[in-house]
Design brief:
Number of helices: 5
Helix content: 40-55%
Number of strands: 2
Largest sheet: 2 strands, parallel
Radius of gyration: 14 Å
Distance between the termini: 24 Å
Strand content: 5-15%
Length: about 120
C-alpha cells in the first residue's frame, strides 16, 4: 500500500548512501507468535529495526512485536527497535501538505527516523 511505497523510497535513499537496509512485509499480524517467529528469522546481524505502520503507535503491532522479540529472543538484546506509527495526537493538516509528512510517515520522515534510530 501507500506506506510500503514510502518505506521503499526511504530504503532507496539509504542504499544510495551505502547502507544495508532490508524490508520485511508482514501481512499476518495475529496470532502474534507467528509474525514474531517469521521476523526473527531475518534479524541475525541486525543493528536497528524500525517497524512502520499506518496504525496507532500505542498498543499497535510494532510495539507489541518489538516487545515480544526482546522477550523471546535474548540474542536480539543489542538491536535498537523503533516504531513509526500514528501517535495519539491529532494530525494538523493543510491543503498544501502531505498527510504522511504531518504524521511522520513520509519518505523523508522515515529516512530521518531510520538514521536517528
Amino acid at each position: 500500500g501507500n506506506i510500503t511505497a514510502k518505506v521503499i523510497e526511504a530504503q532507496n535513499k539509504l542504499v544510495a548512501e551505502g547502507k544495508t537496509v532490508g524490508i520485511i512485509l508482514t501481512e499476518l499480524l495475529k496470532p502474534i507468535d507467528t509474525p514474531v517467529k517469521e521476523i526473527a528469522k531475518y534479524l541475525s546481524g541486525a543493528k536497528k529495526v524500525l517497524f512502520v505502520e499506518e496504525g496507532i503507535l500505542n498498543g499497535g503491532f510494532g510495539m507489541i512485536c518489538s516487545a515480544k522479540l526482546r522477550e523471546e529472543y535474548p540474542e536480539f538484546s543489542n538491536i535498537k527497535f523503533g516504531v513509526a506509527a500514528v501517535d495519539d495526537n491529532f494530525a494538523t493538516l493543510s491543503f498544501d501538505c502531505d498527510p504522511y509528512d504531518s504524521i511522520g510517515l513520509s519518505c523523508d520522515k522515515l529516512y530521518d527516523r531510520m538514521i536517528s534510530l
